[in-house]
Structure formats: C-alpha cells, structure tokens
Amino acid sequence: MDFQENTVLANVSFDVVGSRPVRHDGSDKVTGLARYGADIYPTNYIHGKVLRSPYAHAKIISIDISEAEKLDGVISIVTHDDFPESKTKDLKYLRENSLAKDKVLYVGHAIVGVAANSLHIAEEALELIKVEYEIIDPVMTAPFGSTDESSILHDDLRTDLFGEQKDGLTNIASRFKHEIGDIQKAFDESEIIIEKEFNTATVHQGYIEPMNVTAHWNNDSRVHIWISTQGPFQIREETARALDMRTSQIKVTPMEIGGGFGGKFPLYQEPVAVLLSQKSGKPVKIIMTRKEVFEGTGPTSGSYVKCKIGATKEGKIIAAEGYLAYEAGAYPGSPVEAGGKCMFACYDIPNVLVEGIDVVVNKPKTAAYRAPGATNSTLATETIIDEIAKKLSLDPIELRLMNASKEGTRRADGPKFPKIGCIELLEAMKNHPHWNSPIEEKNMGRGIAIGFWFNGGGPSNCSIGVNQDGTINLVEGSPDIGGSRASIAMQAAEVLGLNAKDVYPSVTHTDNLGYSGGTGGSRVTFATGWAAIEAARDVKQQMIARAAKIWGIEEEDIELKDGVFVSNSDSELQLSFKELASMLIDTGGPITGKGSISPTGVGGSFAGNIVDIKLDDETGKIDIVRFTAFQDAGKAIHPSYVEGQMQGGSVQGIGWALNEEYFYDDNGDLKNSTFLDYRMPTSLDLPMIDTVIIEVANPGHPYGVRGVGEANIIPPPAAIANALHDASGIRINELPMSPVTVMGNLLNNS
Predict the structure, then answer these.
(1) Which in 16, 419, 471, 553 has the greatest CB count within 10 A?
(2) Are residues 668 and 138 in contact, defined by beta-carbon separation less than 8 angstroms?
(3) Count of H-run helices and E-run strands, the chain
(4) What span, in angstroms and rounded, lies between the C-alpha atoms of 383 and 595?
(5) Which 8-state DSSP code applies to residue 683?
(6) pTM of this prediction?
(7) Do residues 612 and 626 lie in contact, with contact meaning Cβ atoms separated by under 8 Å?
(8) What is the DSSP string of 37-52?
(9) Computed from CA positions of residues 316, 322, 327, 333, in that sequence, does the dihedral angle turn out positive or negative?
(10) Exposure class string for 348-371: b at 16+ Cβ within 10 A, else e
(11) Which of 192, 657, 654 lies closest to 390, judged by CA?
(12) pLDDT recorded at residue 3
C-alpha cells in the first residue's frame, strides 16, 4: 500500500512557530523526575479511603460509623453531615456527588470518607461501617428515563425549558431546540429522505493515571490541595463553594497529569480530603483504585439519536432534522447541547431543526471527553450522508464538497462561520493517495467521515521574566496535558526573536497568578498562547524603552528584528536581546512582562478520516488496515504535537467505534471496571496513523491558531461504520460495533 508521510499543508511561515523543537518537559518525564499527584508526601500525612454504594439507586435509611471510629489507627471520619447546609439546588448536587446524603444514585457513589494511619486500616474501617438501604429500580438509559414508567432520581428536579422551570417531577433536566428555515416544507420538496435511529454506549476517557488528591488544612485555616487536574482554578472555586469557604483560603498546586481528555475537571474527592484533614489536623492523601475511577467518576454520555436528512436528486441537502437524548448521569449536565450544535455544522443546509433532552440516569455524573457530545451526533449525520451518496451514485467526498460549510454559513444554533477550512479539508482528502488507491481484497472496505468542534476561549494569564543571560522564564496557569508548554513558549519566542530553548515555561499554583481557564475545550494554545504573546509584547516594549534610555533616543526609533534591537536612524546602534538582558540590573532593574486576556476570536476546527477496514465474516471482528487523519489546525505551532493530538484522538475514536463501553447488568452494576475488561485499543491493534495538517488561518488569533485537541475524535466511528458497509453491505447504527454486534447483523442480513 502507498502509505504517506505525515504532511503539513502550510501557507504561512514563521521563525519559531511551525518548527519542531525538543519539548521542554521531555527530560523530566523520561527520567522520572516529573512529579504527578501520587508523588506528593507531606510530613505526617495520612491515608484516605471512601465507602461507596453497591447499589445503583437506593434511599439511605441510616449510616452507622461507630465501630469504624473505635478501630485503632482511624484518625477522622466524615459524612455528608459535615458539609454546610445547601441553600441552592446546584450546591446540593455538587455536595451530594462528593458524599451522598439521602440517596445513592449510582454504583460507586461516595458515602463516607475515612482517614487512617495506613491504607490498610482505612480499608478495614470501611468494612465496619454499616449503611442501611431501601433499593429502588434503576434508570439506565436516556430514552427510558424520559418516560413516565421510570423511577424518579431527584424530588426537586424540574425540566428547564428555555430558561423556565416546568411543573412536575421528571428525569429530564432540560430541553433545547434550534431551528432555521422551514423544515416541513423542505422535506416535502426533498427527492430523497433517509431517517434512522442510533444508540451509543457510555464510554470512559481511559486516562492511565487514577484520580488523586492530597489536602492539608493548615492551622491558619488555609487549605493547600495538590492534585492532577485540568483546571486548578476551577477546583479551587468549586471546593470553596462546596465547603462554603473563600476562594482565597484555598491554594491548588496542579501536578503533572497522566491523561485527562476532559475527565479531570470535575470535583470528586477534594472536599472529602479537605474535611478529613480539618478533622485530623494532618494532610490527607486519597488515590482512587481503577475500579473506583470507572464506577465513581464521569464517563461521557450514552445516547439515543434520531436523524433525518432530505436532499434533491442532484445531491443538494435541503433539510436536516435531529433529536438527541443524552445521559447526564446522576446529576444534570450532559453535553447534549454541544452535540446539537455540531450535528449538522459541517454542511450548509438552509432548513434545520435540532432538539435535545438532558436526562438524569443511575450512572456517574458525566464529564467531558474530547469534543463532548459531538461524536455521538456526528455518527448519525455522517452515516446518513454516506447512504445518500450511495443511493444517488455520487462520490461521497464530492457530495460533501457540494454541501460543505464555508465562511458565512449559518449554523442552526445561530452563529455564522467566519473563515473556516471545511472545503480545504475535503479537498485534501480528495487529493490524498489513500483515497485514490485501490481496494482489492475480499471483505475490505473504505469509509470517510468529517466532523466539527467549535473550540473554546476564556481567560488566561501569563508572566515572563527576563534573565540576565538573555533567556526568559514563562509562568502560566493552564496545566500541560498535550504539549502546551512548548506551544505557549514558542509563541512567546516568536515575538521576542528567541529560540524555543531560550524559554523556560512552567505551570504554577493558584496563588501565583491571576485566574486562568483550565486545559480543555482546545483553548490553551489559543488563549494561554495569546496571553504569552501579550506578555512577550510587554517585555518587548519595556526592553525597547530600556534601549532608548541607554542610547538617549526616542522609543519610536527602535525596532526588534530577529532578536536584535536596532535604531532606525543610526545603524550602528544595535543590541541583541541577550546583550540588553545582561545590562538590565544596572540600567533600571529587572523586567517582567504580563499578559492577561479573554479572547473572543475562537476558530472552530474541522477533522476528517479515510479508513480501510478488513472484516472477518466468521467472527465479526473488524481490523483497521489503514487510517489517515486530516485536520484544519489554523496554524500548527508545533506540528509534531498536532500530529500526536490527531493520532491520539483518532485512536480513542476507533476504540469508541469498535470495543469500548460500560457494560451494566439490569441492576445497574458495572461489570467491566478494569482495563482488562474495558477494552481499549493498543499499538498492536492499529496501523500507523498517517496525518495531514491543513492550515486555514484563524483570523481571530495573531498566528492563526485553531485548537486541535478535540475535533479528531469525532469522525472515526462514522468513518468505520461507512467502511463496514462498503466491505459487507450492512449498516450498524450503534456503538460499539463489537464482534457480537457485527455477527448478529451479518446473520440477520444473510
């Protein structure tokens, strides 16, 4: 096969931006010096454990901790009674997810926290705690949860309908509706209409490092939290809310992260550790087991999606309708609205209706997982688009090009696209050797799909200090989980005419810097990178002012060119950045630049896949034979990192498509809460994933950056489903497409 090297379709070149320097944190990570959440050992720390529910849905009749309190070595015990009184529903849900009060709402729901001198004593204490339950029938899917036949999870939940609380007990937390055009008239005029229903299973982010926290309530009533988190400032704010404390009382130090993918934002055991520390007077460390991670933290939503698309016989799509029902888990807040926004975003369709509901069920409260909500809804759209192409005998890429979104296209949820790269993405797919190579083997098939994610912005802060040797120290507050130290440092280096290796980036704690948004929503290289640009510009202007003072000329007469300060009126007046840095202390003192920004020019990203699969028609197993990932990055700051993001997201999308699912029994008990039974792809399951980076600059960023961390997970399931149809003639409208599911469809089809 004609495999391709990774490709960057660049339009604009810079000195540092777009290069591939050695990562700044690489040495520490490969030598074991990097410190993760479990690597913190404060003096006199003790161990925490949490008692969790064995039932998916039950009332708590009583909790008896008396025998556990008597156990030698137990230092402190906390229950929900140790929380302040909840005066709002949001606070109630936040606290009850940390420690249940009147009901448990999923297997693994935390009930009691224990701290002891050793882990074994803490575990023994859990066995001595007696909890009496009254079991209630569980609600395990969004469609069932939205019916009158299901049990009610919350006695205070009312449906939020366009900002108004509707009367009546329900499991439907909210509804939304987006509409443009005249949908019924458009379907009446359509010459081909396809409507299908899709179901996707609950899946986990699959991060290797388990959840962890170490908390110390000091005798000055300040709390220090060490944690592997994507959002240290968010953890500070939410912990303060949960415990009715001032945010200034809490200091959060983010440690290195062994994977997150959106799942390490929410609050779980942090308030428990803080309360245990307050009672014991000692630092408390809690590390979840793998079973606890699966059962007690947020996966992404399982979902039901109905999709209907109408087109003319020439292939022009004129109508699209979607209905989405997403599982929120035990508390409201599924990504159903994001799924609705992205469902038809790749296409310029004049008449669109998207409706969705957020349904609470007896599973852990959902958390973000790479482009949350979009993979589910895009599976439906891209499968039907492919089917329309087949029925009209049209090339599937040409059909997509005919209908592709472009600058000025209005999404159903309102916004018009600025400059975007959907057409350029499809052109790159159309021209790639993978698309134009033959498939000759039996039971092999090829499929394509594309997807969209809108990306995020939000506040970021950065400071830069100039060292006397001409290097700079860059301090920022967004944890690095995907190469952001390098991408942020490189943008600062570009402004100052330095090499990337002359920048020493670090992620600091919440006392050291102004509020910065977390590492999610594909925002950090865009937003925190921009804060670094502003901090570097501040340094640059101060350095120019210092040079002007030394030379006795006006600041306006000085420029920074390729790392050298030069006078425009006297060519002999020149100082390199390093030379001027060495003079700062004696000419007015050190220089520190600051950047604070909350940018609005966010640029969405489009991603696409071409995938070849081979089907074993005797077992139903699908093998990925060849896979090419395409994505518009705007401008790839560090192409190697962008390629890694594209490959990583693709692998997770492949796992979602073929194997991954939470397997619950009828009682709501999770039966595959280990990595042995929760089957994720490994390198042995996959070919090398080729990448093509398309660069259509985002006009809302100084270097054209678009976030690249999420869109890549969206198209793989749909592309694989389309490849399976090409290989076998069967359409599978559920995830995962496991061997059992595939064989069942093959037998039914035959």
Answers:
(1) 16
(2) yes
(3) 20, 30
(4) 45
(5) G
(6) 0.97
(7) yes
(8) GGG---TT-EEEEEEE
(9) positive
(10) bbebbbbbbbbbbbbbbbbbbbbb
(11) 192
(12) 59
- Identity of residue 262: G
Neighbours of 60 (CB within 10 A): 20
Residues 6+ apart with CB under 8 A from 351: 180, 181, 182, 183, 185, 186, 318, 319, 320
- Antiparallel, parallel or unpaired: β 303-311 and 192-200: antiparallel
Cα Rg of the chain, angstroms: 27
What is the DSSP pairing of strand 164-165 with strand 317-329? unpaired
* Short-list 491, 502, 594, 581, CA closest to 543: 581
Within 8 A by CB and 6+ apart from 192, the residues are 310, 311, 312, 313, 388, 391, 392
pLDDT digits (tens, 9 = 90+) for 199-234: 999 999 999 999 999 999 999 999 999 999 999 999
How much is the pLDDT for 147? 97
Residue 244 CB: number of other CB atoms within 10 A? 13
| pLDDT for the residue numbered 168 | 86
How far is the CA of 365 from the CAs of 94, 136, 341, in angstroms? 10, 18, 22
Q: What letter represents residue 410's amino acid? A: R
Tell me the C-alpha distance between 574 and 557, whole Å: 12
The list of the chain residues with pLDDT below 50 reads none
CA distance 63 to 68: 11
**Spatial CB neighbours of 696, under 8 Å, sequence gap ≥ 6:** 11, 419, 420, 421, 424, 632, 634
Please give the full DSSP string across 558-573, using - where no structure is assigned: EEEETTEEEESS-TT-
Residues, the chain, total?
750
Residue type, 178: H
Question: Nearest 5°: phi and psi at 539?
Answer: -60, -45
Residue with tokens 């306006």: 556
C-alpha 364/C-alpha 670 separation (Å) is 11
Beta strands 172-180; 352-360: pairing state:
antiparallel
Q: Give buried/exposed letters for 474-513 (b at 16+ CB in 10 A, else e).
A: bbbbbbbbbbbbbbbbbbbbbbbbbebebbebebbbbeeb
Instruction: Indicate the helix (H) or strand (E) that contains 30.
Output: helix 26-31
- 100, amino acid identity: A
Residue with tokens 């090829």: 446
Burial label, 416 (beta-carbon count in 10 A; 0-12, 13-18, 19+): exposed
Q: Can you read off the two tokens belonging to residue 321?
A: 């309708």
Residue whose entry in the numeric block shows the structure tokens 């943008």: 491
Measuring CA to CA, which residue among 478, 530, 494, 485 is closest to residue 705?
Answer: 530
Query: At 348, which helix (H) or strand (E)?
Result: none
CA 723 vs CA 406, 448, 716, 737: distances in Å:
27, 7, 10, 12
